[in-house]
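Sequence in, structure out. Go.
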Amino acid sequence: MRALIQRVTRASVTVDGQMIGQTGPGLLILVCAMQGDTDDLPGKLAAKIAKLRIFKDDAGKMNLALKDTGGSALVVSQFTLAADTARGNRPGFSTAAPPDEGRRLYQAFAAEMAALGIPTQTGEFGADMAVDLVNDGPVTIWIDTAD
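Output:
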């Protein structure tokens, strides 16, 4: 699985003009399931992200994890994280998991975040979504479970 994590002061996702998910201070997490991803990866990825010390402590150093801050998460599916740009100018997405598998792993990841005690909202898998965010820092981190 791949995730692009952004520390945000706020973020929201809208589908067909309706806001369907949001977070206050916390994380916007864009997630992509890849071909061959196994059922254990959503839990491992959620645990890793929940423990990342990327929030400022009282001294202004990135020493706190999401749970330490009482923040929340907005989890949005994004198959374009599987983009292969090695050949030509048109990205290929053949390494992304098939839609049914991708949906299942995405939903499992969001459930794992919530199970860790992190208030979690989601986008809509496969929908044309508008994501609005204010990146805090900016802090943006890429995680690939294959690495």
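Check: The mean pLDDT is 97. Strands lie at 2-15, 18-23, 26-32, 55-56, 62-64, 72-77, 120-122, 129-144.
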